[in-house]
Amino acid sequence: MQQDQEKILKSISPTKVILPILIGLGVALYMFITNVDIGAVSEYFQKANLIWILMAVLVLFIRDAGYVWRIRYLTNRELSWKSSLYTILLWEFASAVTPSAVGGTAVAVFIINREGIKFGKSLAYVMLTALLDNSFFIIAAPIGLLLSQGEVFPPTAEGGSGLFGAGLRATFWTSYALITLYTSFFAWGLFFKPHGFRWLITRLTSVGFLRRFRRTAKEIGDEVIIASEEMKGKNAYYWANAIVSTIFVWSARYLMVNCLLAAFSTLTWENHMLIFARHVVMWVIMLISPTPGSSGTAELSFDFFFGQYIGGFGVALALFWRLYTYYPYLFVGVIILPRWLRRVLAR
Asked: How far is the C-alpha of 80 from the C-alpha of 82, rounded, in Å?
């Protein structure tokens, strides 16, 4: 347990912010140098609609408030408001400094556990949160594809003339398939057959080169059994609130981009619907990014999906988008992590 604690604390060390900052700013700087007229960008930003920018910031705070409320509710209010706030901010920080494919799940379990909730419950709440989030992507992505009538991918991706666009399209379907498979498998184990889940992954890791993962598979199987026990007895009201709050926080996250684009362009209702759908697809792609917090991938994807709405200033707006939706969590995490550690250690 001590080794696990040290490993987790090392993974969220304040020094971890250096790599994602270097990657994100490096990609943005390269895009600026090769594609952007700084003078034109400055003039373009001066004409921005401040009301929509303020709306984007407001939606950001609403989203975080929704996250805080959701984690407090999912934990049956065992977390105080203060503990819930610490949990969400540190969870966001952990997600920002680890690859998107890894996420901050282990860190979240550690944080909730140190806030006074037993390990089994902490594990169950984090697993449930992850399954709810992934389920949102699984359902929202095809709805977005359907409502956009094939326009969710910009023309370069459809026609094959853009290598980057074609790559994003392939990445989306790969990511979507992996998320669907992973989520369905874990949902089956968590809610229906936890012991069968443990037996299956143990058997799968008992042959060939997979044997090196056998110990980890057993640990995951044990954790799913523990979490499954904690999930028993939840009523329909609990599940309804969990689902509604998940839809709320993710919708708020996506609407930030709608507000941001509206500050620089006149958008119709159909434009807003397509932007929302594209953001869902873009997020599915970002989920398997190997870089910390999808640094680099996010900036490139943003320009590709939304550049058409802002007259060639997608690169500049991508950086602006990350400056207030990603980088603040890096700096907030660096500030509150030592304070939180002193708080839980003192307790």
From this structure: 5
